[in-house]
Amino acid sequence: MVVAVERLITSDILKPARYLGNELLAVHKAWDTTEIRWVLTYPEVYEVGASNLGHIILYNILNAQPRQLCDRAYLPGKDLAAKLRETNTPLFAVESKRSLTEFDILGFSLSYELGATNILEMLDLAGIPLTWRERQGGRGEFTDAQSSFPLIFAGGQTATSNPEPYADFFDFFALGDGEELLPEIGLVLEEGKQAGLSREHLLLDLAQIPGVYVPQFYDMAEDGSVHPCRPDVPKRILRRVATPIPAYSIGLVPYVETVHDRLTIEIRRGCTRGCRFCQPGMLTRPARDVEPDKVVEAIEQGMRATGYNEFSLLSLSCSDYLSLPAVGMEIKNRLKNENISLTLPSQRVDRFDENIANILGGTRQGGLTFAPEAGTQRMRDIVNKGLTNEELLRGVKTAWEQGWDKIKLYFMIGLPGETDIDVLGIAETVSWLQRECRGKGRKPLNFNLTISNFTPKPHTPFQWHSVSTAEFKRKQNLLRQEFRRIKAVKVNFTDVRISAMEDFVGRGDRNLGKVVRRAWELGAGMDSWYENLDQAFSAWGSAIAQAGLDWKYRQVENGEWNLFHAEAPKDREDGENTQLLAPNSSLPTQDSALRTHSLDIPFPWDHIDTGIEKKWLQEDLQRALEAAIVPDCSFEGCSHCGVCGTDFGHNIVIESPAIPKFAGEFVPNPTKAQRLRVWFGKQGNMALISHLDLIRLFDRVVRRAGLPIAFTGGFHPMPRISLATALALGATSSGEIADFELTVPVEVDTFREKLAGEMPTDIPIYNVEQIDLKASAATQLLESAEYLITVAALAETTPIQWQNWIDTIKAKEELWYEQITKSGKSQLINLRDRLFELELVETHNSIAESMSSAIRYLGSYRQDGLVLRPEQILFMLETVASVEFQLLHIHRNRLILGV
């Protein structure tokens, strides 16, 4: 059943275009022609989820499968969530507008330790029981009949790392890369559906697929370890590994601005640098380069298909993709005349050189981010960063010499073996870099620093380490005092409360399921957003206490929940207050009894086979204590971590092709060979697109159509497209105007055909005219506007009354209205002077619409502020009728330009 969302998705909610499901390149398959219907649900707001590359890739891959359909859903904003609950409307998929309960399978991305509360919110809004036991009837037993609820699964980094805290909520987990795994799951579901398998047999079949973990077939032991409870499932579940396919990255061009509002193409998956704190690096081995030709082809095709003006190359370590300068320069040369810019995520500063600077620089030079991680050479060796002070200075100085005045740096505090000297080394390093990057005529080099708190992650050598919350606060205060003396530096610190929560949940076992649920019930959600931190911390703290686990959380807060904590001697001068101990140290438990530990104690995630042997992690931890570096096995000898083999493959490193000669930066073409004026409409769902989103849409449409648009000059050249005026969100129109300036004359009919061919159907092109190059812009010529508004009276009325009110308004010479200016001052204006025509078009006499009427008016609409707005027509009606009215709809018939 299709959910009637037209009454929910209205202009009174924030960014209603989030929920339309009509993006460019969205795939709309016929419901009745498919056997298995998926929903990929991203448990974050649309702007985050719709731009997530993994979300886009898997959506495209699933829709490429025969007899299978994939729709999407996102965490609704608080305003829409309230509407859904008030109207008892289930959460729906954005494309089909069907309730999530109608689909066969729902997949959630779980990429953050505290993100499960958002998942529970979505399940609750969808009317789906939160746990697998509840979905099976409350007894935890399987029935012969298939459940009426879809299968619920999770994938993503957190799900792969340690699924146990979330095991109560999911029927299964998809571990590792999903490109090959999800289609295999789809085939098993299709066969099981056709055979009428019970839910138990279906899940049992799924459990035979490498990479699928069905937690209800496993039990937790007293020590937190997990073991099969039946003989026909594997003891350890393999993480899946797939080869990136760039072509599947092209898709979903949202109408609203997203957090990554650009084309993103993956160039390398996996990282073998071996940073000992880095979970993604450990969970994505081996490293796999994408063929340079395929990257270039995907970018060129993607930019033409999407109309984006920016693209990003994605990898955990882009600088380790040897073909980066060649690929970047090839694309920059090919798209030189289209004002395209390239962005990269955080890069290896030791590999940053003039070649990379050339592909990043230009008229739209993007930001630059490096991650030294630690402030001293000793600490960088302990974490195996593989970065020397000389390499750090060379990379930063290269960026400064190439024109960057601001650089973002990432550091961490709380790493194993860290002393106060190492902490203060962060400030000393930044000050040193500033001193080395000074020159005549140049501003001092500005730094934007993010200093995060180290949080131990499963499957890393540092998974046995913790730092107390009090110690984090002390070290943050040390740095705050030190940075007060350094100018041109902005410092951001991670909230220590949330870091402790992430640690507690991320390394937890199945006992935390009740904590996650209770935290959601107490209001936790959107916990990674700054404005929600206080509420999230309160909810999680209360949930932990109510579960009787506050003693265990205090161990995290005190830095005791690890094998290597002991109280430091109080006379230490270097400020170090954590000490790495040898195996068999002791740890206080709830009853204060001493419990013997070793590096071999079981973890809740030991049954997840990531390919890296636990013994190797133990050995690498010992190497960390000795500050010993392990080389990058992609470029030097094997580190013997255990990944490479038949299950996970091997490193694929592709030598770089020759770097093309730099063809020069984009130079805006100032030529104005032709001006065209376009009349267009804004109808249907596109009425919920904001004015700024409409401007971005026109830019992308012109790019996709290949029209020779002119650009402005300056540091940020913009296309010369000028909309006459904005239209209120939710209002429709059949009379909008936009001016276009071209560098090369184009036949009017050709221009119209190309423009209309790339426009959404709800933005029709009515007319295109060529105007004089020296003619005034439409926005300067605006004189008046004609509207058709639908108005409801909140009292019983008759058509005669409506006509009398219209006549009374027309007969008056003065109707005074108090207006508040932008400066906050009050002024009286005569609305009657701004009203030129007023007409009652029709009244609706049906029972449902007995009190509404359609009114046409022509009023002043000048850019100097002399505007008659639809809301002011209601004021006139209320003045003469002494009745309260409601504005139901606004339609702008036309804009009238002066001579």
Question: How is the secondary structure organized here?
Answer:
Elements lengths: L35 E7 L3 H4 L3 H11 L4 E7 L3 H9 L18 E5 L6 H11 L5 H4 L15 E5 L1 H5 L10 E3 L6 H15 L3 H9 L4 E2 L4 E3 L5 E3 L8 E2 L24 E4 L1 E2 L9 H5 L4 E2 L2 H15 L3 E5 L9 H11 L6 E3 L10 H7 L8 E5 L3 H6 L6 H13 L4 E8 L6 H17 L9 E8 L15 H15 L5 E5 L2 H11 L6 H9 L11 H14 L3 H8 L28 E3 L5 E3 L11 E2 L4 H12 L48 E9 L8 H15 L15 E3 L8 E11 L5 H11 L6 E7 L6 H4 E12 L5 H13 L4 E5 L5 E5 L4 E9 L8 E9 L9 H12 L3 E13 L2
Parallel strand pairs: 1-2, 1-3, 3-4, 4-5, 9-21, 10-13, 13-14, 15-16, 16-17, 17-18, 24-31
Antiparallel strand pairs: 5-6, 7-8, 11-12, 19-20, 22-24, 22-25, 23-24, 26-30, 26-31, 27-28, 29-30
Helix pairs in contact: 4-18, 7-8, 10-11, 10-22, 11-12, 15-16, 17-20, 18-19, 22-23, 25-26
List keywords for this structure.
31 strands; 6-stranded mixed beta sheet; 899 residues; alpha/beta; 8-stranded mixed beta sheet; 30% helix; globular
Describe it for me?
The chain has about 900 residues and is of the alpha/beta class. About 30% of the residues lie in helices and about 20% in strands. Strands 22, 23, 24, 25, 26, 29, 30 and 31 form an eight-stranded mixed beta sheet that branches. A six-stranded mixed beta sheet has the order 2-1-3-4-5-6. It has a four-stranded parallel beta sheet with strand order 15-16-17-18, covered by helices on one side. Strand 29 (about 835-845) and strand 30 (about 850-860) form a beta hairpin. Helix 15 (about 420-435) runs parallel beside helix 16, helix 22 packs across helix 23 (about 750-760) and helix 25 (about 800-810) packs across helix 26 (about 870-880). The longest helix has 17 residues, at about 420-435.
